[in-house]
Amino acid sequence: MLMPLDFLLRWLSGLLTIALLGGAGYILYQWYEGELVSDQWLILGVVLLLWSCLGFLPILLLRRPGRDEPRPIRSDRVQRLARPDGSEIHVEFYGSDDAPTIILTHGWGPDSLVWYYAKKQLTDQFRVIVWDLPGLGKSQKPKNRDYSLEKYARDLEAVLNVAGNQPVVLLGHSMGGMILLTFCRLFPEHLGRRVAGLIVVDATYTNPLKTTILSKLLLALQKPVLEPLLHLSIALSPLLWLTSWLSYLNGFTLLTTEISGFTGRETRGQLNFSTLIGLKAAPGILARGTLAMLRFNETETLPQISVPTLVVVGKSDIATRPFANQRISQAIPQADLALLAPAGHMGLMERNQQFAEMVGTFSAACLGLKR
Questions:
Q1: Containing H/E element for 200?
Q2: Cβ atoms within 10 A of the Cβ of 238, count?
Q3: Tell me, what's the pLDDT at 371?
Q4: pLDDT tens digits, 290-306
Q5: What is the dihedral of CA 153, 138, 110, 190, to 10 degrees?
Q6: Whose C-alpha in 251, 275, 293, 308 is 20 to 30 A from the C-alpha of 180?
Q7: Before 342, cis peptide (omega within 30)?
Q8: pLDDT at residue 6 in the model
């Protein structure tokens, strides 16, 4: 999930990628021109070039394979929702139409494909509805370039309206959890009537720079460094997209994904899948959404949430640290905190069975089901 810290890591990996590829090209050219006469320079240039193109292979091969590796699976039961801002929401349905409903909202960067395990493990008892945030996945971006949390909360209400008249459980991961909190502020009338419960996963209640690792440093860099880099990412979106894919080939992006999302216990497929689905979106779109997150603050909303809430966090999450989720659980009157361990920001994938059990047990209680 792309949080502000991830943008700094993406820029750093991009610069390292340019240095690596440029260094390889320079060494090989100088050797060809005779400026570097030793064959050791040739070997070094070839090694750097191979690293630039194939560095991802040893990183993946050193990870353990899993028995059920995530794949890009989509449903053939789809609905498209046109929005007033020109965007169009891609909504998918899984499980029986007569089953109680859980609506899943993904975080910023990937799309609804991230719910691979949840779609498999929850549909035996629930109807699972997933949607792509406009600008990501198969949803069309807004024509007015509005990527605010309020816009996405209104989009979530549109998805809620196609779920039927029965109460549902709303689940949001990372920025998706932030969207849920914004939804509660904008649409409190739905709580308890249309919404039976909330599940907030690895999220925060305020500007995520305040609750991430190295928060003091990042807050000091927000105005002079981070925000200009985000605006530059919008202007240089095609170039940053290219360097991001080159960073995947040399392995830097895989390493940054592991650092920000996992604990080292993830499988080969989980690491690779999480990295690839985060590379599909245009960096310009991601930058606009990240700028919106920097203005986020729903601290005063928390005490007003009137439905049962489960707050789930990876014990080793560095993107939205556990203390932020603990604060959410303490401020919401009917909230409980659940830890995934060992797990980072991508505990929903790294600890998928434990995560599905937590979600299923809580949702069944909210919706009056027997487990």
A1: strand 195-201
A2: 11
A3: 47
A4: 999 999 999 999 999 99
A5: 20
A6: 275
A7: yes
A8: 80
In 86-148, alpha helices (H): 116-121
Does the predicted TM-score (pTM) go above 0.90? Answer: yes
Residues 6+ apart with CB under 8 A from 159: 81, 89, 91, 103, 129, 131
294 closest CA partner among 233, 230, 237, 232: 230
Q: Which residues pair with 131 in a beta bridge?
A: 91, 105
140 DSSP 8-state letter:
B
Report the alpha-carbon distance of residue 265 to residue 273 in Å, rounded. Answer: 15
Residue whose entry in the numeric block shows the structure tokens 């240089």: 236
Low-confidence ranges of the chain (pLDDT < 50): 371
- Return the structure tokens found at 112: 């609804």
Q: What is the dihedral of CA 127, 75, 114, 235, to 10 degrees?
A: -130
Q: Which residues does 149 contact at the CB level (< 8 Å), separation at least 6? A: 175, 178, 179, 182, 292, 293, 296
Decide if 95 contacts 113 (C-beta within 8 A): no
Tokens of 172: 């949001």
- The whole-number pLDDT of residue 370 equals 53
Q: Which CATH architecture has domain 1-371?
A: 3-Layer(aba) Sandwich (3.40)
Q: Which residues contact residue 228 at a Cβ distance below 8 angstroms, ignoring those fewer than 6 apart? A: none
